Amino acid sequence: MSRRPVSNPLALAVLASLAERPMYPYEITTTLRERGKDDSIRLNFGSLYSVIKSLEKHGFITPSHSEREGNRPERVVYEITEAGKVEAAAWLRELLAVPSKEYPDVEAGLSLIAMLSPEEVAALLCARLASLDAEIRTRDAGLTGAAAAGLPEIFLVEADYRLAMLRAERAWIDRFAARLEAGEVGGQDGWAEMARLRAAGASPEEIEEVVRRHLPADPTP
Hints:
mainly alpha, two-stranded antiparallel ribbon, 9 helices, 62% helix
């Protein structure tokens, strides 16, 4: 992925909003929330102002005019520049076409499961399955309801994608947890032995010896 002048995904949402019409910051926030974009993009009103300042600094947006309602403070209305339109289109094309390395929390947790016992990991993953099932039901019902209400599919693609990813995660977790419970995961015997030694207060040297016994002499692929 290219290094962009402003890399916060919220900035792209701001540019997309201003490509429709000039808006003031609070209007951008409410518009994104009304459209459910806060489910796909981290939307924080405090960080929005920082993003807007960065976009203005790089010439992607510019103040259009100021407005005042009654005794309320004056508010600045922003509009997108030609450079901003070019940046938004290039950024969106890259997001859609080029896979990027992400760091999901569950992937981080899976990379460190050897800290716990196989039995505990299996139980924790089963608990995760229950949470995933609840979220899948909720999101599936939401999509079905939106479609029944006549909302065109084009406005639901990110929600449909998220649901597909949840179902894929659920299927993988279900398979892996079942294999753990059946003792079928490669290296599980050594992992279980390390967990027993750790629970018994074994020394790091004793645990390291187990690792050496269960790993090939040269673990490099």
